[in-house]
Design brief:
transmembrane, Rossmann fold, 4-stranded parallel beta sheet, SLC12A transporter C-terminal domain-containing protein, SLC12_C, alpha/beta, transmembrane helix, 6 strands, two-stranded parallel sheet, globular, SLC12A_fam, 40% helix
Length: 306
């Protein structure tokens, strides 16, 4: 064993991550690990991340795109050189945009995460009782344009719809829907978004007779939670008509994603794009991951296509 083999390779890359967090002005702990696979590495980070009782309860993962998204990091996105940073921002940008970027540099593996492994990672997060968020299209979000649009506010839209139980007659505010509302509320109250965005909550109804009652219930709940948001009730009979008809006591049971037809998911996606066209961020419920990875990714593609 030579002298270089005795050095933990993470010690070489850790300063770059600390500098990146500083230059992006993020309040965050940096956790790194080395593992034989991405899935095992994610499991390690989920179990070990945090400080004392401050354990993360939410995991955010990017969408598994067919082609990798090229994330662009420019010096203009970072703060000016900080006195206490050991690495200047030009070196930070060069490191994270280099072809031999750290994950490939350490593992030597150029293969992407497979669809099956990605879905298994989603399941692992849920099995560890963590809240799971799948983020998509955020590379298209122009935060600079958002902060400069003083005269035009963008929207933060919440769609608390249970796609597996569309015929539910109640409000259906389960933990997942309340979590979406909480995330949107926190975002709308942050300093960067508070002056440039408005929060909207969409409730889907199956008939016009329910619209006034559901709108009243939604407004009462928002007032009770002290959340300043616009309530919008949307008829979606044209979407539910694509959902397979179920008779008997199984009407309100959950159906796996594999049974959700593409026409149903596509119609829901078109409705979101029509009503949330001017939204900067849209949050919606996703079905639970099924056993079939390909059907899971196909369903997510239908719902989140933009």
């Amino acid at each position: 064993m030579n002298e270089n083999d005795a050095v933990d390779p993470l010690q070489q890359v850790f300063p770059y991550w600390l500098s990146l967090v500083d230059y992006l002005k993020l309040k965050a702990f940096v956790e790194l690990t080395i593992s034989s696979s991405v899935r095992q590495g994610i499991q390690q980070l989920i179990r070990l991340s945090g400080l004392g009782a401050m354990k993360p309860n939410t995991v955010v993962l990017g969408f598994h795109e067919v082609s990798p998204v090229n994330t662009i990091l420019q010096e203009s996105q970072l703060l000016k050189d900080l006195r206490y940073s050991k690495i200047d921002r030009a070196a930070v940008v060069e490191y994270f945009t280099a072809k031999d970027y750290m994950p490939k540099e350490l593992s030597g593996n150029l293969e992407r995460l497979t669809s099956s492994d990605y879905v298994n990672v989603l399941k692992d997060v849920l099995h560890m009782t963590k809240s799971l968020c799948v983020a998509r299209h955020f590379h298209k979000l122009d935060k600079e344009a958002l902060s400069q649009s003083w005269n035009q506010k963008r929207f933060i839209d919440v769609w608390p719809v249970d796609l597996q139980r569309p015929v539910e007659t109640g409000l259906g505010w389960d933990n997942s829907s309340l979590f979406l509302l909480q995330l949107a509320c926190i975002l709308s109250m942050s300093s960067r978004w508070r002056s440039h965005s408005r929060l909207r909550v969409f409730i889907c109804v199956n008939s016009l007779q329910d619209m006034h009652r559901r709108d009243r219930q939604l407004k009462q709940m928002l007032d009770m939670l002290r959340i300043k948001a616009e309530s919008i009730v949307v008829p979606w009979d044209h979407v539910v008509c694509h959902f397979p008809q179920i008779s008997g006591p199984l009407v309100n049971t959950q159906r796996p994603t594999i049974d959700l037809p593409g026409s149903y998911l596509s119609a829901f996606n078109e409705m979101i794009k029509r009503y949330s066209e001017e939204a900067a961020i849209t949050l919606l419920n996703l079905p639970l991951p099924p056993d079939d990875a390909n059907n899971m990714l196909t369903g997510l593609e239908f719902v989140t296509y933009s």
